[in-house]
Specification:
Pfam families: Glycos_transf_2 (PF00535). This protein is an alpha/beta fold. It contains 15 helices and twelve strands. The strands form two sheets. The protein has a ten-stranded mixed beta sheet with strand order 3-4-5-2-1-6-11-8-12-7, sandwiched between helices. The protein has a two-stranded antiparallel ribbon with strand order 9-10. Helix 1 packs across helix 8 and helix 11 crosses helix 15. It is globular. The two termini are 45 Å apart.
C-alpha cells in the first residue's frame, strides 16, 4: 500500500515538473513574440474581427455595474457587450437600466442553438461608443443564458465572461491575437483568471493590486496563479489544453454554432464545451487549436467563507467527473490527438481521482505513524514502509507544491509586476506555505464530495455565491 502512494506521488510530481518546464519555455517564447506585437495599431485596425462579449447574470446586483463598466471601457475597435439576465430575483436588471440609460426595444433573437428559458425582453443603451445590449429571460441556468447570448451575438468572435469578472483594459486585444495570427487554425483561446479580493477597484478597473487580508482568499490567490501560469500554460504548449475558464474565454461563433452551443445538462459547461470542440474536430478530421494566452487577465471575486468555497469546489469537481464520464469514449482514441491519448487520461488519474488518493494517503500516513509508535513501544510487530521514506514523501509533496507556486509567482512578477509592494509578495509566499496545512486537505475532501455527487446524480443549480462586491480592498 505504501509503495502505491509513493509511486503515485512520483508520477504526479514528474508530470507537473514536465508541465512546468513546458510552461516556462512557452512563456519565454510568448514574451519574445509580444515585443513585436503592435497592440496600439491593432486597436485602430478597421479589419479587426468583431467580438461579442457575453455576460450571463443571475442575482449579480453587488458586482454587475462595475463589471459592465469595465467591459464598456475595453480597448478594442469593434465589440459589443451582451448582458443576459437569467431571471434574477434581485435588482440586477433595475440597476443596469438606471446606470446605463437602457431603453426597451424589440430585437430579433436567432435560433442558432437551442434555448430553454424564453426571452422576455431586450434593452439597448442610448449612450456609449460601443453597443450594450441587455436581454432578460426566464431562468434556465448559466449555459442556457450563454446560448441565448450566442443567438443574439452579431460579431464573428464570442467572448464569454462571468458577471463578477473585471477584465484589464487590453484583455480583448491580447486574447484575440492568436485569432489574428492563425485565423483558420485557432478556434478558442483563454486568458488568466486572478483573484480581485483585496485589490482596489475604481470605475470598473483594478487600479491597485494587493493581497487579501483574509486567509481563505489569500491562499486562493496563489492557487489560481499556479493553476493558470503552470497548468493551463503547460497544457497549451502540448496542444492539449482541456479547460478554458468560464470567467474569460474567446471562441469563434461559427464553431459554437456547429457544436450546438453550451450543454445545459452539465455543471462544468465551460470545460465540457472545450472537450466537445475537440470531439467535433476529431470526428470531422478538422484542424484547430485551443490556446492559452498569459497576458490578458480577468479578475474575479473569490469566496471568503468556507461554506461558499465548499459549494464551489464540489461543483467544479462534479463537473469534471460528469465531463470525463460523458466523453469517456474519447479516451485513448488517436482521432482525438493529444487530448484523447494523453490529456484526458491524465485528468482521470491525476485530477478526478487525486482527492480520493490524497485523503486516503493522508489517513494511511497517520496510521503508519501510529503503528510505528506502537511497534517502538513493543506492543506489536509490523512490516511497514520505512518511516523515513514516508515522512520524506509527505514533505516532498508540500515542498513541490510550494516550488510550483514560486515558479508561477516569479514568472508573473518578472513580466507584469502586478504587486508593487514587498509586503504583498511576502504575503503571497506565506500563502504558498499556508495552503498546504489545512486548506489543501479541506479542498481534497470537498472535491471528493463533488465526485460522489456526480455518481449519485443529485440535482444542481446555478450555485449562488455570497459576494461582498468589488470595493476598495478586503
Amino acid at each position: 500500500m505504501g509503495w502505491f502512494f509513493i509511486s503515485y506521488s512520483l508520477l504526479i510530481n514528474t508530470s507537473f515538473l514536465a508541465l512546468t518546464v513546458l510552461a516556462v519555455v512557452d512563456f519565454v517564447n510568448y514574451r519574445r513574440r509580444i515585443q513585436f506585437a503592435a497592440y496600439d495599431e491593432s486597436f485602430g485596425e478597421p479589419l479587426a474581427r468583431g467580438i461579442s462579449v457575453l455576460m450571463p447574470a443571475y442575482n449579480e446586483s453587488e458586482t454587475i455595474i462595475g463589471s459592465v463598466q469595465a467591459m464598456m471601457a475595453m480597448r478594442y475597435p469593434d465589440f459589443e457587450v451582451v448582458v443576459i439576465d437569467d431571471g434574477s430575483k434581485d435588482d440586477t436588471v433595475a440597476k443596469l437600466i438606471e446606470a446605463f440609460d437602457l431603453v426597451r426595444l424589440p430585437m430579433v433573437v436567432d435560433d442558432l442553438v437551442p434555448i430553454v428559458g424564453e426571452v422576455t425582453g431586450t434593452w439597448l443603451s442610448r449612450r456609449g461608443s460601443h453597443s450594450l445590449v441587455l436581454v432578460t429571460k426566464e431562468n434556465g441556468g448559466k449555459a442556457d443564458a450563454l446560448n441565448t447570448g450566442i443567438n443574439l451575438a452579431r460579431k464573428e468572435l464570442v467572448c464569454m465572461v462571468d458577471a463578477d469578472s473585471i477584465l484589464d483594459p487590453d484583455s480583448l486585444l491580447h486574447v484575440s491575437r492568436p485569432f489574428a495570427d492563425e485565423p483558420t487554425e485557432v478556434v478558442a483561446a483563454g486568458g488568466v483568471v486572478r483573484v480581485a479580493n483585496g485589490s482596489t477597484i475604481s470605475q470598473g478597473r483594478v487600479t491597485n493590486v494587493r493581497m487579501p487580508r483574509r486567509w481563505l482568499a489569500r491562499v486562493q490567490v496563489v492557487e489560481y496563479l499556479r493553476a493558470f501560469m503552470i497548468g493551463r500554460a503547460g497544457w497549451s504548449a502540448t496542444g492539449g489544453l482541456l479547460i478554458i475558464s468560464g470567467a474569460f474565454g474567446l471562441f469563434r461563433k461559427d464553431v459554437l454554432v456547429e457544436v450546438g452551443g453550451m450543454a445545459t445538462d452539465c455543471i462544468g459547461e465551460d470545460a465540457e464545451l472545450v472537450v466537445r470542440i475537440y470531439r467535433w474536430m476529431g470526428d470531422g478530421d478538422r484542424a484547430g487549436k485551443v490556446v492559452f494566452v498569459s497576458e490578458p487577465v480577468a479578475w474575479t471575486e473569490a469566496p471568503e467563507d468556507r461554506a461558499t468555497l465548499r459549494k464551489q469546489r464540489r461543483r467544479w469537481h462534479r463537473g469534471l467527473a460528469e465531463i470525463l464520464t460523458r466523453h469517456r469514449d474519447m479516451l485513448f482514441r488517436r482521432r482525438y490527438g493529444f487530448v484523447g491519448l494523453v490529456t484526458m487520461p491524465w485528468f482521470v488519474v491525476f485530477e478526478l481521482l487525486a482527492p480520493f488518493l490524497e485523503i486516503f494517503g493522508l489517513v494511511y500516513f497517520f496510521v503508519v505513524l501510529v503503528l510505528l509508535g506502537l511497534e517502538d513501544l513493543g506492543f506489536l510487530s509490523t512490516d511497514l514502509v520505512d518511516p523515513t521514506l514516508v515522512v520524506l514523501l509527505f514533505s516532498a509533496s508540500i515542498l513541490y507544491s510550494f516550488l510550483l507556486t514560486m515558479v508561477a509567482l516569479l514568472a508573473e512578477e518578472m513580466s507584469y509586476r502586478r504587486y508593487r509592494g514587498v509586503g504583498d509578495l511576502l504575503r503571497a509566499i506565506r500563502a504558498a506555505v499556508e495552503e498546504n496545512f489545512g486548506y489543501r486537505q479541506l479542498n481534497a475532501w470537498w472535491r471528493m464530495g463533488g465526485a460522489v455527487e456526480a455518481v449519485r446524480r443529485s440535482q444542481h443549480d446555478w450555485g449562488e455565491m455570497k459576494r461582498r462586491g468589488f470595493g476598495d480592498g478586503a
